[in-house]
Amino acid sequence: MNEPKDKSPLVPAEAQARIGRRLKAMYDDVVNQPVPDRFLELLSRLEQENHDSPAQSPKATSTPAGGVKQ
Amino acid sequence: MTTEPQSFREGLLAEIPSLRAFALSLCGNSHRADDLVQDALMRAWAAQTSFEMGTNIRAWLFTILRNGYFGELRKRRREVEDATGSYAASLSTPAEQESHLDFADFQIALAKLSADQREVLTLVGASGFSYEEAAEICGVAVGTIKSRLNRARAKLAELLQMESLPASEPETATYDRRSSAARVRAN
Question: Which of B22, B41, B45, B114 to mutate to test the interface with A (most CBs of A within 10 A)?
Fold first, then answer.
């Protein structure tokens, strides 16, 4: 509720647009890069772990205290 | 009712480019940015039952990533007093060829903002989130997002204007070289 000091001048539309274009250019530069292998490997590994210990199924997760197996 | 047009894994995969861009805009270092992304993906995977399919997975992932980043930042604050300074020192993205100078100036200016200012600029200015979505991601009121955004833009505009003076010198310098050469010849 209390905005202590919002006395920054409103930025002219032209400057805003210029800032916006640069931000977008920087951002898109990364977005357009291919996904590094490390992330593909990570997702495969995570999925593999799910297969190995299928905690995903609701039945398996509903035993809160009796997890002797793991 | 389209049930899962894509799996959770595919959902994550599709968002990795945006997550990387967002992370880089926060921390300014591409290696650290990818570590943040990795961390966020692992946490997202562990929390996947709490994600409702069909809701905005990008917003959900961005929230996880930024909470990780700001949590870490808070922890480190004592050691690294100036997070801004370390951001500036760690800038590592090579600029695109064409507007090389512009890009470098812009990054330097960006580094002088606070992390939450960079965050809001990116969320609204580059990722295309609405004020409301940005507010939800950051866990603050919409009014806070608006004023933060305005302050961030004002500071950036001010910095860029200041730096546009020396930055314009190299440009004229190349012309000057020619003209001074001409001048030398003329003399």
Answer: B45
Under an 8 A CB cutoff, do B125 and A19 touch?
A: yes
Predicted structure pTM score: 0.73
Specify whether the CB–CB gap between B23 and B69 falls below 8 A: yes
d(CA B152, CA B158): 10
The Cα A1–Cα B144 span in angstroms is 9
Predicted confidence pLDDT, tens digits, chain B (187 residues): 444 456 899 999 999 999 999 999 999 999 999 999 999 999 999 999 999 888 899 999 999 999 999 998 888 876 655 555 556 656 654 444 445 556 778 888 999 999 999 999 999 999 999 999 999 999 999 999 999 999 999 999 888 874 444 433 443 333 334 444 444 444 4
Give SS3 for B13.
helix
Q: In this complex, which of B93, B125, B143 lies closest to A20 when CB atoms are compared?
A: B125
The rounded distance, in Å, linking the Cα atoms of B141 and B132 is 8
Closest Cα in chain B to A57 = B49
Query: Residue A23 — φ and ψ, nearest 5°?
Result: -60, -45
